[in-house]
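Hi there, hope your week has been kind to you so far. Do you reckon you could talk me through the fold, stretch by stretch? Thanks so much in advance, here it is.
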Amino acid sequence: MECMCCILDRKSLAMRGIVAVIFGILAIAATQFTLDFLVYVFGFFAILTGILNAGVGISSEKTELPKGLLVATGVAGILIGILALLAPLIIAMTATIFIAAWALVTGISDLGFAISNKTAPHRALLALSGIIGFLFAVILVITPILVDFALVIVLGIYALVFGVISIFLGLSMGKEKVVVETKAVP
């Protein structure tokens, strides 16, 4: 059996959480504004979290998940964020699908890591974050004609929950990077 290592960085988890909480607060507080404002805020959020995900994928020597998945998740977030900033009208018309796709990819990634890494600290919370992301994506796909106000509130609540979980995970890891070893099943 081959040993796999994953380096969990508390700073990147906490930063991802802080960005999500800020985004959640802005999304909930900005319900009277247009969807364009939400698209711009989401664009910056997707770029920042994409950079963090890609950075972890590139800088980690060995990860439980394939480095390519982490980098791909990051690149997808960056591209979706750039598209949101360059073409807000197009994104506004299809915001539900893009947000659902992002939540689905992030949710599956978090859930996959929680399931595959039996020794990760607080993996139940990571799994919960993944399940919430997956359910959020399903809700958005099932009800694509959400009014702008409802979309802002639902997205803001999701970002707050996701952010608080990420901050807790990051802060609970201590000052050192945690190296988690697992055995790969042939």
Strands lie at 2-8, 178-184. Confidence is low (pLDDT under 50) at residues 180-186. The first strand starts at residue 2 and ends at 8.
